[in-house]
Predict the structure.
Amino acid sequence: MSRELSEKNNISRRDAREQAFILLFEMSFSDEDLSIDQIKENALESREVEFSDYAIKVALGVSEHREEIDSLIESKLKKGWKLNRISRVSLVVLRLAVYEMLYEPTVPGGVSINEGVELSKKYSVDESAFVNGVLGAVLKELESK
């Protein structure tokens, strides 16, 4: 578990990940294909919520690399499963953790898995074993390269 502080708001990396999860989760409900910046602004206006630099960076990164991330996730699902069978919460958690594994070299893969599992436990009807399994398979593939 990373205890380093995020740049803005002096919050922990764990809290920044949770903020990124919230941004991405809200984006997953957007019919208008809102950008992360638009969602961030809406949250600031309606709920006076500010997001850390790390949360915004991760959310933007997931959005930018979503196709690659989704392809990697889908390759680790059981035969016949597609992304649309995964709950919205679990899919957002998976995307966030896989993004970190691919694009945040200062975050150990095990930390991304642990944080993903914790977010899953907090926000879903315990799909943490599923999240753990998929992320473990992703990390194993990435480490073998």
About this structure: Residues 1-8 have pLDDT under 50 and may be disordered. The chain is about 65% helix and 0% strand.
